[in-house]
Automatic annotation (TrEMBL):
Residues 1-33 are annotated as: Disordered. It comes from the Eukaryota. Residues 1-20 have a biased composition (Basic and acidic residues). GO terms for molecular function: mRNA binding. Keywords: RNA-binding. This is RRM domain-containing protein. It holds the Pfam family RRM_1. The keyword RNA-binding applies.
Amino acid sequence: RDQRDQRDQRDQREPRRERTQQAPVATNQSRGNRSVYVGNLSWDVTWQDLKDHMRSLGGLVEHADVLTEPSGRSKGCGLVTFATVQDTENAINQLNNTELKGRPIFIREDREAGEATGSHGGNTRLYVGNLDYRTEWYELNDHFKSAGTVTRADVVKEEGSTRAKGYGIVEYASAEDAAEAVATLNNTQLLGRPLFVRFDREEKKRY
């Protein structure tokens, strides 16, 4: 009888042990990351193509950017920021390996997103996206000097043209000022458009 009681007690404990052995799945939901990296883009994909594809599930896309070389040539990858974590999760789960302009795209969370605090390796240069095409360098400078001492502000133009590309570069006197700008000025409005602000990942200057 004692042996049967021990087996019964062991059987009753077994389901509880199985549940506790299952590790929780790490997701963007737990980290609060709303940005994704999109790879294997066709060279002719524009930011608008990328944005339209990523919002095909009905989610709200705050920003879409195709990364380029200093020459203006596409790098074949981009970054997309969604309004909610759930929209981000849906994109990763449902749009990964879908086709955009004939190429299957690769989607994962942007591992550099959210690095707004700290010196970010001493980087003092910021990328500012979603600029109104009418934005002048001095307007960009005035908007960003609230976070610290701006040493340079440029609105990037098409090569050989005065037409703006819709983004700019801002440099600060210190990495601390740059981090403050990322933390406080991302998603603020300039000329009626919400700005996308992050540390510039390009090793070479774009201007």
